[in-house]
Amino acid sequence: MSEEYGLGKLTKCAGLRPCRAACEPAPSKNYNTQGAYGQDRKYLATTLDCEVTCGGGSMASKDPGGFLQQLRQIAGRMSSGPRGSGVGVKLLIGAGALAYGVKESMYTVEGGQRAIIFNRIGGMEMNTVLSEGLHFRMPWFQYPIIYDIRARPRKISSLTGSKDLQMVNIGLRVLSRPVASNLPFLYQHLGTDYDERVLPSIVNEVLKSVVAKFNASQLITQRAQVSLLIRRELIERAKDFNIILDDVAITELSFSREYTAAVEAKQVAQQEAQRAQFYVEKAKQDQKQKIIQAEGEAQAAKMLGEAVSKNPGYLKLRRIRAAQNIAKTVASSQNKVYLNADSLVMNLQDDSFNKLSLGK
């Protein structure tokens, strides 16, 4: 800023010819502007007054380019502020730039993640895989690519055919993660969405090849064997793409409506056949039981006849047992009954009982 020009002094205009005494500001005009930029405003007013008075006309009409340049210089001086403020602004800008540079040069790799570095000049750094923690980089020239190496679940369904040409809808859940040591190669060939690009294709391929080896009924009865075979082939296929499969499990196994209805009808028919067979076996057993029972009764009758013919006292023994049973029943009854002992076969002292024989 030029030297201060006040009332009663000759005015020197920046970059302009010296002015006469008439360039002094008139007493009626107030150029003592208060504020932080009072001197610049007073200088501006004095300069413009000198231009009008000393030049005998408008400076813009003689040299428009010089006039615009002077206005730019004056505006720059007005916006410069007090002395020392420019240094503070520069220091503030420098500190902000330094903080931004430090922030951009550091990054953190969280737990369960790995980072690889891409260099804008040399490309991918194939031998660099960074573990968890704080790391540094060159801003703009290098930037990290973060991979999550924890196992992630994914469910994939496939409609395929069995060995007996039955359509089977099978669902598979896999837990996959990348090989941490081969992340640069994985990024170059598959990118960060490697599971989206690889797993659906290889899972469908393996499912179709394995299911085609079994009948529809074997897929149900030999499910553990089918799951083991699918797991083994999938792990081998995933190794070609630097992917590790921690677990493979069959979550869904369903058939078409027609096949399901046919299986149910077959099961019902088998149950009916088994029930009819059970009835036949039961009838045979009942028949055998009756035959054996009749043979037993005939044999008992024959033995009874032989016993009576050989010893007539057998009838007396049977009569005594019958009398004991009748007497026990009458004695335990609460009713008072008076009957003839002969009619109840209880007269054991009669002569007829002693003379009882087979012929009489």
Radius of gyration: 59 Å
User: Can you give the mean pLDDT?
Assistant: 77
- Approximate strand percentage: 15-25%
Structural class: alpha+beta
Largest sheet: 3 strands, antiparallel
Question: Quick one: overall form?
Answer: elongated
- How far apart the termini lie comes to 170 Å
Helix content: 40-55%
Strand order of the largest sheet: 3-2-5
Number of strands: 8
Tally of helical segments: 11
Secondary-structure element sequence?
Answer: HHHHEEEEEEEHHHHEHHH
Q: Which residue ranges are poorly predicted, with pLDDT under 50 across at least 5 consecutive positions?
A: 1-62
Explain the overall architecture.
Helix 6 packs across helix 8. The chain is elongated. The termini are far apart. It is of the alpha+beta class and about 350 residues long. The protein has helices at about 40-55, 60, 65-80, 85-105, 185-190, 195-210, 215-220, 225-240, 255-310, 315-330, 350-355; strands at about 105-110, 115-120, 125, 135, 140-150, 150-160, 165-180, 245-255. The strands form 3 sheets. A 3-stranded antiparallel β-sheet has the order 3-2-5, covered by helices on one side. It has a 3-stranded antiparallel β-sheet with strand order 6-7-8. A hairpin with a 5-residue loop joins strand 6 and strand 7.
Describe the structure concisely for a colleague.
This protein has 360 residues and is of the alpha+beta class. It is built from 11 helices and 8 strands. Helices cover 51% and strands 16% of the residues.
